[in-house]
Structure formats: C-alpha cells, structure tokens
Amino acid sequence: MIGVDAGGGDRLALAVLVQYRMATTEQMHWAVAPGVRIEQTRRRLARLREEGLVDPITLPQAGRRRVWFPTRYGVRVAGEWPELRGADPPGLCLIRPPCASRSGTR
User: Fold this and answer.
1) Contact between 50 and 42 (Cβ < 8 Å)
2) Half-sphere exposure (CA, 13 Å, Cβ side) for 43?
C-alpha cells in the first residue's frame, strides 16, 4: 500500500479486527496489505499486541494457526474513532477464549 503510513495501516488492522471479531494472520494480510510481504503484517500485529490492542490464540487443531482478536482496550480505542463511533461493539471480542488462558499460549 504505497503512500500509507504505518499508523494508518495499524488503525486499519485494528478496525478490521473490531468489525470482524477475529481473523487469522493470513486473512489480516489479505484484508490490510496484500501488496506487501506477510512478514510486514506479522510485525504490524505484533506491534498492536505490544500496545495491548489485540491478542492471538493458537488453534492446535488447525496446524497451530494463529487467530487474532481485539482486546477490550482495542475495542474501546477503535470505538472512539469517528468511522466506528456508535457501532455496537461485538460481544465475542470482549471475552477472552478459555483456551487462551492456559499457560504457554503466547
């Protein structure tokens, strides 16, 4: 995505997760930045995770595929943006999946 700053891409990634509740790394890559290498999408998601905006879970039955979801804080932050203001936040992303609470899932 030529001409888009990293902050704008991060904002888009969080908005996608808030609206769709959860997505795999590959789905996020195709939705946010299909024209770049997937490593950039992985770094973007890691940066959002460091900020406490998203969290991953690993699905053992799907070849250890990572699925990302917005945290409560991420939903709150995105809910303040004009384009998402007034939208009903999805309930699914506000509840941390039980499998994510086990040790060693990060």
Assistant:
1) no
2) 9
CA distance 57 to 67: 5
**Alpha-carbon gap, residue 73 to 53, rounded angstroms:** 6
Per-residue confidence band for 106, with pLDDT thresholds at 50, 70 and 90 = very low
Give percent above pLDDT 90 in the chain: 42
The residue with greater pLDDT, 85 or 54, is 54
Check: CB of residue 14 under 8 Å from CB of residue 70: yes
What is d(CA 55, CA 68) in angstroms, rounded to the nearest whole number? 6
Cross-strand partners of 68? 23, 56
Between CA 16 and CA 25 the distance in angstroms is 12
**How many whole angstroms separate alpha carbon 22 and alpha carbon 65?**
13
Q: Is the separation of the CB atoms in 31 and 45 below 8 Å?
A: no
